[in-house]
Please model this.
Amino acid sequence: MELPIKELTRDQALACLAQRMPIEFNSTNYIAQASERKQVEGHMRVCLKIDAAFESMVTVSASEPILAEAAYFVMAQSFFNAPVHFKSVLEGFAIHKGECGEFVTIPLLMLARDAAVGPPGSDGRLKNSRAFDVASFMYGHLFRRSIKPEYFDFDSREALGRLQEDFPRAVMHFNHFIKIHDFKSIDKEFLLLRMSRGAGILCANNHSHIDVINVFLRSGTKLGINNFGLVLYQIKNDSHYTHIPKLELFSGMDPYELRILKPEDAPVPVIRIFFALAARTPCLNVTRHDPATDKNYKAVTYDIWCAGLSPEVLSPIDASYAHI
Model:
């Protein structure tokens, strides 16, 4: 199905992206406030609060799975260049740019997800299931399968290749991200309920050790605590973090210390990914921890250190984006 339009206005592009990403306004002058009001008036953004003097307001794009799917359909059109539109939105509106590079990473995850589910059919619906394979999402759609040896050593390649062996029937589902402002609200029940609505999680500012969370189901599509796995992301846009992994940083990404799991809960599989966005040398380093030999955590764990923003490593990045 072809859309009757061939080009989006900047306001329309913002509305589309905001249905999939937790974009927040930083409106401090009349022009910026007018743009925010326009999103509420004409683009289904929700007004949560208006101050007593009617000089500022707090708005958000609600977590609506159907609208997120509609935004995905628009983004799948040939006229929608996601990096170009996102850059235009960042430059054209008074919106928060993020604290640590999350608004670079989340678009990468969204593009990888869209590649995993494939393009929509002629009627606008997905040709395949919304639930997609975890192993191929990680090793194929997010990280390239054809990474050169200088960026991806043999041990890392072998470790990442075992995802399919460890998770032969594991699936994920998300089509948008929402931001959580309460540290205490993130637990396994909350995360599973958000997954049922297709929502990934952007954590509150200054959350310890993690910035973004996805949930996966270990075997099939049955939603339940006993069929639960985690993908935890930590993101740094700081040149202090290079292509040399700081493996000790993964220890803080522990589901028990993060209170996602309670002390009496059984451990769940975890894929921990650290994005060192400002690293000049791209690389992908992967360590697999076997539950049979790990004394501290009795479930399979993957620690993935991804350095740089390079098409050599990350599948969603096209070399042609360099000029943007």
Q: What stands out?
A: Residues 150 and 212 are 28 Å apart (CA to CA). The chain has two domains: 10-95, 132-307.
